C-alpha cells in the first residue's frame, strides 16, 4: 500500500508541476519560466537547444544555441555572453523586470542583456526551429519582434538568417569570428555585405578586406571560382534588395527536414560549410571560397593579377610594370604595378601632343577588380562611355548586372581557369599590339574550325544513322512533330551554326517560351529546385497539360556557349532510349538558355544526364576520322586487327603518326592530330569508369583540359585474343549501324 500511495503522490506532484507551467511551452522563456544552469529549452521540432555550455580546456560557462543533434562544442551557432563568461555553474537566463532577456550570474549581475526598450511588461522569448531566439510582446497578436538573435549573429550563418547591410544608414548585420575555438569573444574576422554601387560579400580582418566574392549577378557571385562543388555555395543562396534601403543574403532551409547545413566563419578567417552526417553523427566540413593564396584580397597589389596556376602567382597587367622591381622580384607584391605609357587623355591634359586614341585590352575569365561602378548601359554603350571619360580605366559587362566601370586603381584581380568574366583594361594605343592579336585570332579560328568540323561531322553522321533507323522502324516515331512548329522562333535564330542541322532539330524538338517555363516552375521558385548541375540549376515544373518536366537553366557564367548548348541539345535529343531521360525541348531567349527534360521522380537528374553517353563509339569515330578508314575495314585485311587495336599498337610503338590519313597528316596539324588520337584512346579504354565523359571529351578537344592522362589498354586489345563470345556482337552494335561514309576532311 505504501508503495502505491507513493506512486500516486508522485503522479500528483508531476501533474501539479505541469499545471504550474501550464501554457509555457518548452521552447519559451517567460516571466514565469527562467532556466538555471544546466537546464535548457529546445525548439518545438527539437532542432535547436538553448542552454549552458563550456568549451574545451575551459571551465567558463556560456549561454548559447546549438543543434540539438550535436554536442555544443561542435555546433554552437549563437552565444549570448560571448565577452563575459560565467565563472561557475550558477547562471540564470530570464526575463528581467524591464522586459529584456538577460543572463545573470550567481551574484545577480547582468552579464548580457537583449538591451532593447520594451514598451510592455509581458514579454517572452521563444526559440524557433530556425535557430532564431525571438523576444516578443506576449500580448500582441501581430507577432512584432522586439529583438531576435538573428539580428546579432555570432560566427554562424544558418538557413533563413539574413546578412544585411542598410545602404542608407550603413548599419550591418554581420558574422564575427570567435577569438579561438575555445574563446567565443570577438575575433578579428567578420563577414558581411559590402555595397558600393554593386553588392559583394566581404570577409574583413578587423577593418581591412581579407576576401571578396565579386559582384552578384542575380545568380552567382562573379568572383567565386567555378569548381566542382561551387554549386554548393550557391544552393538556394539569394541576394535580395528589400527596396527599403537594405540588401541581404539568405538561403533557404533544405526541404529534407533531417538535413542540416550551415556556414561558419572560423577564428582564422576561413569560411566553411558544414553538413550534418547522420551516420557519423558529426559534421562534414566542406567548402571554403578561400582556396589559394590568390583568394586573399589584393594579393598582387594595384594593377597586378593573380593566377594560382603560375609558378609566380602575381604578374603585372599588360602595359604595367612593378612599382618596386626589387620588392616584386622578392615576392613582395603588395605595392603593385604602375602604367608604363600614359593614356592619350592624360597626355592631352598635360598639354603634350595627342596621339592615337586609347584602346582596351581584353582579359578573359577574370575576377573583376574591387570598386566597380554600375551603369545601366548595354554592352556596346558600356565601352563607348568608358572611352569617352578619361577617369574610366576599365570596364566589364555582365548581362545579369549591366555595365561595370572602374576609375580607381584596379585591385584584387584574379585569372581563373573557368568562370569569371571578360575585363577590358584601358591602355595607350601603342601598348595594344594588334598584329599579335590578329595572328592569335587566326590560329584560334583555324583550330576551333577543325575541331568544330570534326564534331559536327560526328553529329551529322549520328543523325543520319538515326534518321535511317527511324525510317525503317515505324514504331520509333518522332515524338515532337506536332509541337515543334508552334514556336519555331527560337531555332530560326541567326546565330545557329550552320553545321547544326537546324531543320531536322526543329522538327524533332519543340521550343518552349520562357513564360511557359516560368509558369511551369512558378518563376523558378527555390522550392522547385531539384539540384544543381555543372552548368546551372535544375527545376521541377508542370506544364499546362499536366506533364511533369525538369528544366535545366544554364547559368550565364557557366561558360557554356551557344555551340556547347547546341551540342548538348543535339546529343541528348539523339539519345532517345528507354533508359535515358528524354529531352522534351529547349528554350533560347536573349541570355537565357534552358533545356527541358522529362521529369524523373525519385532520382537526381544527374544520374541521367551525361555529367558517359556512348563515349566509346565516339572514340572509335574519332579514330576513323583521323585515319580515314572504318574500324571494320581491318577485318578484311591480312592482319585481323581492329582499328582500335591497330592504333593502340602504333601508340605503344611510338609510331602513332603512321595512323592518320595522308590527307590530314600535315606537320602543321601534328599537335591537333595527336590530341585527337590521344583523346580517342582515352574514350576506348577497357573500363568504362576510366573513360572521360563526353563533356570532358569536348573540353579536351578544345584544349581546355591541357594535360591528358596516358591512355590505358583499350577495350578490344584483349578481347580479340580471348574467345569472348560477346565481342563480335558489341562490335556490330557500335560500328555496323549502317554504311554511311565518313566525310573526309581536306586540309586545303
Ligand atoms: C504569455 O501568454 C501565454 C498565453 O499566450 C500565457 O499562458 C503566459 O502566461 C503568458 N506569459 C506571461 C509572462 O505573461
Ligand atoms: C586543449 O588542450 C590540449 C592540451 O593542452 C590541446 O592539445 C588542445 O588543442 C586544446 N584544445 C583546444 C580546443 O584548445
Ligand atoms: C493585453 O492586451 C489586451 C487587449 O489587447 C489589454 O486589454 C491588456 O491590458 C494587455 N495586457 C498587458 C499585460 O499588456
Ligand atoms: C563584437 O562584434 C559585434 C559585431 O561586429 C559588435 O556588435 C560588438 O559590439 C562587438 N563586441 C565587442 C565587445 O567588441
Ligand atoms: C589580420 O590582421 C592583423 C592586423 O590587423 C594581422 O596581424 C594578421 O596577420 C591578419 N591575419 C591574416 C590571416 O591576414
Ligand atoms: C534526409 O536526410 C537524411 C540525413 O541526411 C537522410 O538519411 C534521408 O535519406 C533524407 N531523406 C530524403 C527523403 O531524402
Ligand atoms: C585557414 O586559414 C589559414 C590562414 O588564413 C590557412 O593557412 C589555412 O590553410 C586555412 N584552413 C583551411 C582548412 O582552409
Ligand atoms: C567620368 O567618370 C567618373 C568616375 O566614374 C564620374 O565621376 C564622372 O561623372 C564621369 N564624367 C562624365 C562626364 O561622365
TrEMBL record:
InterPro entries referenced in this protein's UniProt entry, alphabetically: Bulb-type_lectin_dom (IPR001480), Bulb-type_lectin_dom_sf (IPR036426), Kinase-like_dom_sf (IPR011009), Pan_app (IPR003609), Prot_kinase_dom (IPR000719), S-locus_recpt_kinase_C (IPR021820), S_locus_glycoprot_dom (IPR000858), Ser-Thr/Tyr_kinase_cat_dom (IPR001245)
Domain Protein kinase: 524-748
Reactions that this protein is recorded to catalyse: L-seryl-[protein] + ATP = O-phospho-L-seryl-[protein] + ADP + H(+); L-threonyl-[protein] + ATP = O-phospho-L-threonyl-[protein] + ADP + H(+)
Topology in membrane: Single-pass type I membrane protein
Pfam families with a match to the protein in the record: B_lectin, DUF3403, PAN_2, PK_Tyr_Ser-Thr, S_locus_glycop
EC number: 2.7.11.1
Cited Gene3D superfamilies: Bulb-type lectin domain, Phosphorylase Kinase, domain 1, Transferase(Phosphotransferase) domain 1
Record's protein name: Receptor-like serine/threonine-protein kinase
UniProt organism field: Corchorus olitorius
